[in-house]
Amino acid sequence: MLSKAATMEIPINRNGDTGTLPEDDSLEQDLQQVMVSGPNLNETSIVSGGYGGTAEGIIPTSSIKGSSMQDSRSSSSMTAEEASRGVAVEKLDFMKQWGLNTYKCTKQMIAERFGRGSRTVDLELEAQIEVLRDTKRKYENVLRLARALTNHLYSMVQTQHALGDTFTDLSLKSPELRDEFGYNAETQKLLCKNGETLLGAINFFVSSINTLVNKTMEDTLMTIKMYEAARLEFDAYRADLEELSVGPRDVVNMARIDTAQEQYQIHKDKYERLRSDVTIKLNFLDENKVKVMHKQLLLFHNAISAYFAGNQQQLEQTLKQFNIKLRPPGADKPSWLEEP
Global pTM? Predict the structure, then answer.
């Protein structure tokens, strides 16, 4: 849109021809000003009304773009707000359900503790669980004693190794007792070698018992804990359903009974599923325990007997029988890259 300074009158004669323009230097300057200060495409205006109208009818297109961008931003912010509100509602519902479930289970636990509530009991399964817990305590004691034996035997082997080196050094420095020191040095070295072989067998025994106790049995006990928690929830919702069933049969109470019946069925299915899992794991654990202990007890007996009998060949044969490979000397020491 031309500015006011660049607007001029062009005279037209009767024949429709344009008249001669006055020679004025300001015309060229006005045209240059129009070209320089012309409208920007980014600031194009929409004019409502005719040319030369008031500024009230002019609507900048930049304002239209700004309003559309604001609308898109507001819609995106509303979407994010609705999403966050939905997450908050889900968390609130979860906390509400968790609090209600905790209240019911705590109430059931207190009632059982003081003898005012009934609990579901599987006598056969409870007996098996108690046997497992007692077995785990005894096996933990065996594991502790076997580790103590390993530590004592390791100390003895190290002492025999140092004693053999001392005897060897003295045999070289004492010509009059060279043979005596030499015999004792060889004996200590042989005992040290047999002790290292026995250490390999006992370490394998300890590793197998540790896996059985702290992994296999512990996994079964974790399933038992889940089963006991499901049993408590099942009894809590069962007691809630029984309490509602003796109440009035109005519309509100019937709706509560239907909800309680649904929750009761859900927790009953969970309880029965976990009870079946515990039964299967107990049977599997019992079979696995017999196989593992049969092998490990045979290894422990043969290795100890061969060591104290001084039968080095039988001791090495025992390790080969159970596929036990000894670590080379110095394998436990850190490499020069790991040394401080």
Answer: 0.66
